[in-house]
Amino acid sequence: MGEPAFEDILIPRPEGLYCPVGDFYVDPVRPVAKALITHGHADHARSGHGAVLASQQTLDIMAIRYGEDFAKSRQAVDGPVEVNGVTVSFHPAGHVLGSCQIRLEAKGMVAVVSGDYSRVANPACAPFEPVPCDLFITEATFALPVFKHPDPADEIAKLLASVRAFPERPHLIGAYALGKAQRVIMLLREAGYDAPIYVHGALQRLSDYHIQQGVPLGDLRPATMDKAEARALREAIVISPPSAFASPWVQRFADPVIGFASGWMQIRARARQRGVELPLIISDHVDWPDLTATIQEIDPGEFWITHGRDDALMRWAELNQRRARPLHLVGYEEEPE
Fold first, then answer.
1. Same-domain check for residues 140 and 55
2. At what angle do helices 201-212 and 56-66 cross, to 10 degrees?
3. What residues make up the domain containing 194?
4. Is residue 337, in this structure, part of any structural domain at all?
5. 3 state SS of 310
6. What residues form the membrane-spanning segments (predicted)?
7. Which residues partner with 323 through β-bridges?
8. Can you give the pTM of this predicted structure?
9. Whether 39 contacts 76, CB under 8 Å
10. What letter would DSSP give residue 159?
11. Is the separation of the CB atoms in 334 and 43 below 8 Å?
12. Are 62 and 45 in contact (CB under 8 A)?
């Protein structure tokens, strides 16, 4: 019996991963007739497709970000559905609210496109669900042995210690608008911080949606205050997109402590380049131990690498006698982690 022909169910194209049997794409980087979307980050979820299938939360998030007409038609998937003879189901990825792995079954084979995923408990979204499969498509954002993320609760403890040490200085924390910002807020609440948290206007609608979906973010207040109000702010935590640090908005605050919540903060040079005084290593992606452990747990016949660093993971596959393939897809990771 020959090797399974995984190309019958998934093949890489310039538009993204294509399922020839079902005639659809998963997380395409260009507008296509039919797209299945893993989650709402802009390097995976783009507007302009003919039809979009995704979780209801991802569809809602796309509408918030792109407007209600982001696609010609949309369908929320809850349970298995048939798409041109392919059985499709969505399973939690533990990355951000609404994020899912997409399971495809056709021609006696099962493939799982994981999108971005995390194995660390995230109070702002559903946890990762291991899905048995023949072919596993994995990210490789932090696919180097040097990346081992610390406990996020310990990173939040550093933030709170800094707030206590410098009560006269507001703490401005850069966090990506979808997922990371709400996770940082929830980690603060879990650590017992019940004071108001100020959020940049770019985070407001997505944060409101999280609250609507039952994520208890607590007392959030707008950080779109005038200069006098901002100058008077003390012993406060302000969450904003990292891009805001390069805008005049940040100059309203008096001597702020600049922090940034990202897995990339493990690289000190990146923190220095961004002028980050308080790097917080908080990631919504798997680190090297969780990435390799996930592949071992799922134990697919083969795995493909969609984006990120594939060289070390390919070497790991060789040493562990696992079949692997780098796809070299482009268009991902256009937004900060």
1. yes
2. 150
3. 152-280
4. no
5. coil
6. none
7. 302
8. 0.94
9. no
10. H
11. yes
12. yes
Q: Do 162 and 127 reside in the same domain of the chain?
A: no
Q: How far is CA 85 from the centre of its chain?
A: 30
Please provide residue 31's backbone torsions phi and psi, each rounded to the nearest 5 degrees: -60, 135
Question: Do 212 and 260 have their domain in common?
Answer: yes
Sequence-distant contacts of 9-13: CB under 8 A, at least 24 apart: 9/86, 9/104, 9/106, 9/107, 9/109, 9/111, 9/135, 10/104, 10/111, 10/113, 10/135, 10/137, 10/304, 12/327, 12/328, 12/329
Counting the structural domains of the chain, the total is 2
Could you give phi then psi for residue 178, rounded to 5 degrees?
Answer: -105, 110
Reference 105, options 142, 130, 131, 139; nearest CA is: 131
Residues 268, 311 share a domain: no
Neighbour count for residue 203 (Cβ, 10 Å): 26
CATH number at residue 249: 3.40.50
Helix, strand, coil percent content, the chain, rounded in steps of 5: 30, 25, 45
CB 198 within 8 A of CB 173: no
Identify the pLDDT of residue 1.
39
Q: What torsion, rounded to 10 degrees, do the Cα atoms 125, 128, 134, 138 define? A: 70
Mean pLDDT by 10 residues, the chain (337 residues): 72 94 96 97 95 98 96 94 96 98 96 97 96 97 96 98 95 96 98 96 96 97 84 89 90 93 93 91 97 98 90 97 87 52
Dig out the tokens for 312 from the structure. Answer: 């070390």
